[in-house]
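Teaching soon. Got one?

===
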Amino acid sequence: MHHCIVVLSNTFNKQLFIQQLLDKKAKGMFESFNQLDAQLFSSYTVQQFLLEEERHGNSGIADAATQSLRSMSSGEQKKMVLKHLLSLKPGVLILDNLFDNLDAEAQQQLKKVLEHTATHTHLIQLLHRKREALPFIQQIVTVTDQGEIVSFDINQEDPAQDAFVQTIPPPLYSYKVDGHELLRFSNVHVSYYDKQVLKNINWSVHAGEFWQLKGPNGSGKTTLLTMITGDNIKGYGKDLYIFGRKKGSGETVWEIKDKIGYLTPAMTDLFSSRHTLAQMIVSGYMDQIGLYSIPTDMQKRSAYEWMQLLSIEQKANKPFCDLSPGEQRMALIARAMVKHPPLLILDEPLAGLDEHNAAKVIQLINKIAAESESAILYVSHQTEEGLQPQKIFELTKTENGSVGKIVSFNLPQIR
């Protein structure tokens, strides 16, 4: 079998490359695959089956007839879709960022399945992060900015560079928060349909702290987040305090959201082609998707200073959707942080980024932690080299719901 890993940058036209493989029109070293039928295995493929299930009540996967894809964990969904694709007996299986959003256990299970698959099917793995390379594939290449395919040393070190010289822009105003404690969960239990999801959660977050929230798929990370942001009614009736007030004591959802900056990569798709970079960042002051209020001169100046920090001020009037993935991700962080909220939530902020852009975003997050008074809640099951959270709150699944514990303390950051 002929297998190959392709390490990609975020500037490479991956969609065109995949379509050429599927249409049997690949070029260069991949022309030999044009004689074979190809199938794509990716998060996009899984989403297409989920969409089919939502529209027609049936995903088209025979083994999913007894249990819907929607009710499965991310790992189970990927295993089910992979089994279906292999039943079609493709000559080539294209693996596009196959480990996205999967915890360590699900990744190991998938690797075992693919190692067996490699005995009878050609594999082409497309990835952005070197650590995701399948260990049993020996041929590794990358694509230069000129489109040339060259060999790639997976063990080469990437020189660390300081991407941000300026200090972060100062806040325009201060938030009034009762006390130093921003969040407190005291013996919090959460159940859905008699199934316990969270058990006896005790956790406090104070102003200026840098936390990572970890846990495997399905451990309750999203449940915790939505209880904090006010998007989950399970927060009511619990011993849960947010910004000094007990949940359900009269605060509005908007009063809570006003004190939170939030980022998830999925937000990228919410901004249309008419939204410029400058409009997108300054909209963080209004908590709007797009700009439907007139910003003040000070707010516009502040947004420009954030663009200067990120070295993208020359693209201020360019449509946000035309920026590179790395620029979009940094701009979304600036949008979430522009008002210096008491709490900044970053949900999987590195998903889909290549090595270079992931390193820049890590530097930016560390810089915000060191130079601002915002508490940071970084959410990911991955441990990232270079990221400097002070504390880690880890969820562990049990038969009676996930339990949480503090598993690490780092030295306090110098402010």
Remarks:
- Residues 4-151 form a domain with the Rossmann fold fold (CATH 3.40.50.300).
